[in-house]
Amino acid sequence: MKPSENPQFMSARAPIDAPSRQSTDHAQGWANKSPEKADTIVQEILETNPMGVAVLECLTGRWLFANSALVDALGAARPEDLLVRDTSKTWVNPEDLARIEVALKTGQVLANYEVERQRFDGTRWPVLLNTQFVQFEGTEAAIVWHLERPAGKSEPSLAVRQEADRANQAKSEFLSSMSHELRTPLNAILGFTQLLQIELKDALSPKQNDHVENILAGGNHLLKLVNDILDLARIEADQTPFTLADVNANTVVADCMALIRPLALERGMELVDEFSRRPAIMIRTDALRFKQVVLNLLSNAIKFNCEGGSATLRGHDSDNGFFFLTVTDTGIGIADDDQADIFQVFHRLDTNAAVAKEGSGIGLYVSKLLVERLAGRIGFESEEGIGSTFWIELPLVSNDEALIWDESLRVGIDVLDKDHQVLISLLNQVRQHSVGDEDMDEIISKLIAYTHDHFRREEAIMAVCGYPDLERHRGIHRDLTDRVSKLADAWRNTRAPETRRRLRIFLRQWLTNHIMGTDADIAVYASGKEDAIRDALRSLETTGDL
Fold this sequence. Notes:
This protein is of the alpha+beta class. It has helices at 24-30, 35-47, 68-73, 79-83, 94-106, 158-199, 206-236, 249-266, 287-303, 336-339, 353-356, 363-373, 414-431, 437-465, 470-494, 497-526, 530-543, and strands at residues 52-57, 63-66, 113-118, 124-136, 139-148, 245-248, 270-273, 282-285, 310-317, 322-329, 377-383, 387-395.
């Protein structure tokens, strides 16, 4: 719907004031004013309003007017400085910018919409936005009222989360480098200790042999931690090749149970397999990585269990094309305060030293990365003091809708390929019938942020590579952004299954038509320009465009 088709759209000759101060008598007086005189009166009213007010052109989003209160609030020296500034530079959160752009184009009225504006000095201004549509200087426009947000209402913005992501990436790179440096001397220490154990065992006293055993145990534990960190770094850097095949889930689970059973016996625990001897279930996955995830869930169920407790593995196929596996323990459970962070890297399930020393805090984080790369999902239910059930879903062989990233989908530019993996992951999540409304809300938010950042990265790469069709490509990006915003609003307004279906179809078309078609051409122009691409992307981060 165009703004002028909105029943709340007003001409400049209609009554305009702050949302809470409209007067019918005053409106009648305005009705007889000329358009030019009405524009002048509008500006006078808005200029004297103590609330920050802007008038934006609906079609382009450009500034038409800003009152003194808004100029001061955003830290501009003069009104002209604000009016010539790209409006996108005044939003902290790209999701808010996308929402405003859609509202301007469709005539959607915003009421107390929480946002953060970015001042000229880079600080943030939390406000509540209200919009009202008018005819201003002969064009369709929106008056945007800025109400100072009450203290305590601020939430972490997307920019804050992105900064945390960058810090996490730097941390991963550091840990990877450190782990490589540690592994060489550590292997030497273990090697010499093993020589002591083999060649000098009879010459050493019982106490000395105990010391050798402790050195080996501690060294092997440290080596496992180093290898876990290197594995994590490879997965995060997309350097882990996947070998996809039709895999018998029963066989893999049986192997895992055999490997983990000695640990259960050592701790006096019962390990129950209610799945592997059932009729075979075939899944499309990487057998080695599937095994890694199952072993991690089983080992956690034992490590964080009670003496004499049990761990039970179950599995079945579902009508929606997925294999569902659960591991249930009778252990310590997870406190409510810890549950939100359970899949965060280096988060431990328990702070008790006797328990914490056995894990690296990496296993569940890596498992989540692997399961999602394999077009699946992972989750859990837990009650402190009672136990936990962790579950995974992976696509059956018969599931021809699930997409798993492999080399055939690569376009050849690392940063774009990583972006495309995110889109595939979102598409797979939308397809899963078990995804609830809250999960869909998160998917929508991720999709809006992804759309903003991916298109800016891609356009920066095309610009430095001399891509000949950049402007047409930008037009495609604007159209896709608009469609994402409309689908997001449709979901928020209706939460209807039909909207899910439309979103699923749209994402599939985006992947096949645009990414696998148009984006693949970019790699031809990017060859040999890796340094220029890296500099362009670094510039985007430095200027805050991501």
